[in-house]
Hints:
By secondary structure, the protein is an all-beta fold. It has strands at 13-19, 26-31, 42-45, 50-56, 64-73, 76-85, 90-99, 112-122.
Amino acid sequence: MLVEQKEYQPGEKVQLRINTNRTGSTVLLFVRPVNGVYDAPYTLKLDGKSTSFEVDVKQGDMPNFFVEAMTISEGEIHSIARNIVVPPEKRVMNIELTADQPKYQPGEELKLQLKLTDLKVIP
């Protein structure tokens, strides 16, 4: 199973290329299994030895999700899993720290004011 990119962002589509050694194979495709729990798989019946399948990348997929394909050939189970990387968004925040006086002596108590501004999401 091949993917086109190393990383994806929410809103993009992962184009999976699924290959087998047998013409006309049936492949079970599991998208986003979590802790060994799987939703019902997609059943792909190949005309030749390969097919494509598209998966939408969602916001909840950060930092990654898995796709697993499985087929049976000559009485043996063949499976492969791919980790689809969806890096978390980068967030930038300005922090302003203000003391109540310009200088302090060792051991002297101080009061600080903390101001957070400009939360930005950088793609």
